[in-house]
Amino acid sequence: MLPFQVKCHVGYVPSGQRVVGLSKLSRVADVFAKRLQDPQRLANEVCSALQHGIKPAGVAVVLQCLHVHFPNLESVFLDSNHQGWVELLVSAGSGVFENKNANIWADFWSLLRFRGINVEKTRVRDKQNHHWCPSRSSAGAIATFKMESVNPGMVTAVASILRSLGEDPLRKELVGTPARFVKWLMNFQNSNFDMKLNGFVSDNGDNFKEKHVHSELNLSFWSQCEHHLLPFYGVVHMGYMCTEGSNPIGKSLLQSIVRFYGFKLQVQERLTRQIAETISPLLGGDVIVVVEASHTCMISRGIEKFGSSTATIAVLGRFSTDPAARAKFMQSIPNTAVSGR
To answer: Band of the pLDDT at 301, cuts 50, 70, 90?
Structure first.
């Protein structure tokens, strides 16, 4: 029950001289996308609707799906290379496109390559991919899933929500969905975990020596928007003052602080401030924190703005009064906006 992004590519061979407007093709895809879906079923439904609606000689539909691969609390601390999005291609064809080995499919794939779709580097769903959702198909997710640990009252509540949406929780594709959703949601329970810094004190140098700006960039995080109960994710950039020859704080400790505050029901502004206030006493009080994030609530609802990102900043100590220090840190941040990838 997590959002996935879709780019829908449609090819068709007109019957006679009938050509369909692009807006109509887009509306057909939107109608079937705005429901609980499986990528292959979505491709099949769009293909079937177009075939019956415009009656061409054939229709080809290719969906470029990006599914959020949200880690659980245990795996994110163990795997620093966790991939946030998994890309999947699915296709459906009718009429002259019904045979996937037909030459006309080769022509269509060639056109898609002009759009930058590299089939060889993208996971294509086949019959062996029983679970298209990366959170279900990963061995780690299956191994850590324990049905008995899930609150039955919460499972019943999610099943009730599905029924309110007109869905049947006993449909084979939805069996287990309420429990999986609850298991994922419990990553964000308000636990009384302690931030154990083990008495860490940073060696940021003599206060009487000249200090320079040190940056730690692209610390990844995942979190859960408390307004819409949808994920948001991104990177955190930190800057602090230290003298030449002093030992910078370990990146692993900073990453742990970021993830500690990320795995909660959050808003980005509070997350930014909490990180800054936590690292400030460790680093002599002069800190700056910038958080860049992409919010799925801006993709799957509301303005539905793909590729949008939000940046927040918190400054303490010298960074709040020294524009030159702030500017130097901001210039160190790579010019790569967080997007839906």
So the answer is: low
